[in-house]
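Deliverable D5.2: sample structural annotation.
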Amino acid sequence: MISRRFLLGAGVTAALAPLVGCSLGRPGGVPGVCPSAEALTSFATLGDAPLSYEVSGERRSFEADPQFIDLLQQWTEEWVAVAGLGPLTKVSTYGAHVDKCPSWHAAGRAFDIAELVHRDGSVSCRYDVWGEDGGRLRQYWRLAASLSTRFTYTLAYPFNAQHHNHLHVDNGVNGYEPTRFKESSKAQTQIVQGVLRHVVGSDVEITGEFDDRTRDAVRSFQRSAGIRAKLSSTDGWGEFLTAAVTL
């Protein structure tokens, strides 16, 4: 992996903004210890799809915790099975590990997705490029819902401007256990509201506040999908997300 020092020296500091910005100063805490880059594992594919660096378009390998890579690989298989777009052929990313501790990127347990290219279509996370495109938004929020089944912190474009060009995921909160929903979580509530608005078609705003309109829309969708478990339970959260992805 190209080092942070090399990139800074090459004059592409802005390219690092997704990695640095989405790992600090947010709920969920930061790791107490960051491993050295040598302790991480290099990976160049997700599924059978090569990774490419979004800034340059070149194929590259990246470093991450080996167990986190396994989690990404498991999620990839699940996504391909339900996305309806055929096999994955390329993953465009802003990267995984950076040498800036403390952060989940520095711990090798975070990843930034810019675009997934499939045989029969693509899902772009570049809100900064396509904005309020209804078709793009629907696919984007389906992807965000799918990621949220594995990563408590899936940070989408409403979270802040630094996430307008990628979806960030890390497992700093849930580790390798199933994810759960908390009404107090701004990031998770944005996922719920984005899914309700752009996938389900509910009249809710993406505010990050779990208000009465959001709660009513969740209950309405749960009834239509036959979901009986509470959204705050592991089963209820998983069923809500899975129903959204498969719509």
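Annotation notes: Strands lie at 41-43, 45-46, 49-53, 62-64, 88-95, 110-118, 121-124, 153-155, 167-170. The first strand starts at residue 41 and ends at 43.
The annotation will be released with the project's public dataset once the embargo ends.
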